[in-house]
User: Fold these one by one.
Assistant:
Number 1:
Amino acid sequence: MSWSIIDTWIIIIGALCAAGCAIPGTILVLRRMSMMGDAISHTVLPGIAIAFLVTGSRDPTAMLIGSVAVGLLTAFLIQGIQSLGKVEAGASMGIVFTVLFAFGLVLMRQAVDHVDIDPDCVLYGSIELAWFDQEPDGLGIPRGAIVNSVMLLANLFVVLLFYKEFKITSFDPALAKSQGIQPSFMHYLLMTMTATTAVAAFETVGSILVVAMFIVPPATAYLLTNRFGMMFVFSIALSIVAAALGHLSAITIPTWFGFSGTSTAGAMAVATGVLFIVVLLVSPNQGMISRLWRRLSVRILVIREDILGLLWRLEERGQGKMLPIQLSEAIGTTELSVRMALLSLKKRGSVSKTASSWSLTERGRTNATKLVRSHRLWEVYLDKHFPQDTHQLHHAASRLEHVTTDAMESNLGHAEVDPHGSPVPDEE
């Protein structure tokens, strides 16, 4: 793999573009308006095409004005169709952005004959050629880097200026209105940010792939933190990493299969998806693996306590030892789960093994006594306040005993025997 200054600038431009998109994208994700970013990024196309047809050039100011106007029109139309037509939000977005996007494609075909523009560039971007477009000349900085830098700084400035307003309106618009903040103003300010960012990014990643930059890094950051400010930090950081990984994969992975390369903008969008999947799997709080581990831990905890309670009751009847297969049949779970729970209890010093059977230790007996006491007090409480069949009492108490705290148990009262006639163990 040969590396040049062009590759360096491709990553820089991609990172600036993705980071700039991540800022309004974070607010869109928090406000559950992700598809609005998709709609606006598509509907800026007719604004760009109209600017081309009117001015006959790729003047950035005309493009910006046309795109922002159509972007705001998109927001107005979606809101109007949703409220006046009683149409569901997703359907209203689909109606507006598909019609306007198709209209933009029709206009773009007309613009091709009058303006030096490649429709594929508008749709998919041309970040690979960004190095050769240097205006003004002599600085050695591509125009795409300047445009995306300005957009990133502008978005940062707006978010920092209206940080409190964005935060409150993202979570509680009614509270914001009661504090003198206009949710509608913040909404259309966000729409303006989204439209202008889409215009700044369309030459880099196109009007289609920009959706990935708007949505995927913020959605990934949402899996990593629940703090408003940190979401922006994580979104920007993930966007930069995705830009670097995307370009590196675009120039290396295709060569493994005999190809010269692939679309860098497309590879960057794919990289955002790969990062999302990785975080979805390994996120400490919301990752699939951590969730499965917590569920397994809770399940093993319940089985451990069920084993303690069962062995205690056996001792109460003059027995006290049981085989794993007998325990699994009595509890109603797999033998593997029981063996895992027994090993965990043995490690904690709650059970001991004699030959192939298991029995309580003194420590385990103490814990089991507390558990059985909680179970029988719950049966007494439920029978007093919510009379029902004794089998139902036992089933309900079997669930509640696992989540009972000392404070909760103190409110259950005192009793000598449970509704089944079994004695309630003393606190000692």
Number 2:
Amino acid sequence: MSGHSKWATIKHKKAAIDKVRGKTFAKLSRLLEVASREGGGDVSINAALRTVVSKAKAAQMTNEAIDRAIKRGMGETDGKVYESVTYEAYAPGGVAMLIDILTDNRNRTAADVRIIFSKQGGSMAAPGSVGWQFSRKGVILVAKSASEEELMTIGLDHGLDDITADEEMWHITSEPSQVYELKAAYEAAKISVSSATTTMLSSNTVAVTDPAEAKAILKIMHELDDNDDVQDVYANFDISETLMQEVG
């Protein structure tokens, strides 16, 4: 899990820049449209939409913008029709990656993703060759100012599975259905939660020690994250803090 944890921290910092560019909101809008189109616009009965709305509010997306996206998904206003697809790939060093896509042009997106990997020495993989390594989990990030003991004491009553840490953040995992209950429990105890989401975590990690491979992997992650059609990227790399700093 360590590789994913490090990327989660990087992405958390990067989110502030993404908000300025509007990328975070654009991606959330697509998710809202698809969730409302597939399950209806009522968050009380559409669990998928309820999850995305929680993500959108955590990212400080306005209620008006959320409502507009839901209405587009419901067909109440004009909007594009997005197709959901997951690509599987390998980055340098044998690192496995899953890429969740929402696109209105599958051929364009497939070509864009393929180019990102080929430029850095990676390759696309056959369906099923990567996905079996991953399972969905809830992940909460909390600043290290909170104590591990307090997080554990509260979390065990609300679905906590495990706690790990990097230099700045606690990384708390739970079953995906309980992540927002766990977040609410921490906030009720006056513990500030930096982010709470569901993600895919790998059962295996690949230790990356070669600087060139580490740089290529992080470049792939950043370029995928910058692509408007890419919603999420999951990977099983383990790059040390020292090497992370060395390759930037």
Number 3:
Amino acid sequence: MMNAPIRIAIHGGAGTMPKRLMTPEIEAACHDSLQLALQAGYSAMAKGGTAVDGVEAAVRALENAPMFNAGKGSVFTNKGQHEMDASIMNGETLDCGAVAGVSNIKNPVTLARCVMDNSEHVLLLNDGAEEFARLHNIVFEDDDYFFTQLRYDQWQKAMKKKITVLDHVDDKKFGTVGAVAIDAKGNLAAATSTGGMTNKLYGRVGDSPLIGSGTYANNASVAVSCTGHGEFFIRQVVAYDLHCLMTYKGMGLEEAANHIVHDKLKPIEAEGGLIAIDAKGNICLPFNTPGMYRGWMKSEADYFTGIY
């Protein structure tokens, strides 16, 4: 299929800062960052790039924005470090790449793509992933680049309370970022990136770098990126479950996505959401939290960003 409508959708995490804490300045900055990410991804495809190019560009923009828990804005682990996870998948070929527990990588999503494009593997971890990054000239940054006062203060609160928390301490916000897209040839792609959980222990890894749990793309059905409490999304294999409901039960995108988020996840107190685009270019962004940083773009003039 040639010259299909280019479309992209993104998320910056489900669950939001409470409205009482959301100043007009913070809200405007979030909308601006979402819009810039949409434009980055859409532009990459409008210039002839693939859906993979689009989702990588969008997620890179979100990783570079300090208000999201990915890349620059990543949370602190129990040891005061940053351990980041990311994945990417090509719906045309089912090729995919992922990294987990990496430190000092400026754009983990780009390293995930490098794994997909330049290795026979899917998932690389920790030191091995960083060694691979050096071999392929992936950009590193020092610890200071990743330091944000907000994340440091959250970590200190979590340390004092001796808890591991999902991004924020006093309010629920799941800071994973992601993108899904369909390009001019009708190919789908998805990507997800995260800094994980504040004060996390033992090299904990969530759903974001796990193909089928946090990320999945298949031209026959859907591209999906998830955000929420990763342990539940892993147990429910959420991203692949959406593909299965559409492929084997014949559900439409909206019916299948809402069934997972509201009927399967909510009853087990699994908070979060997902973004998805199907093979026809339909977009769905359901969530069962008070809000989700999200947006879509169907043309330069037709786009949406939302928080609550």
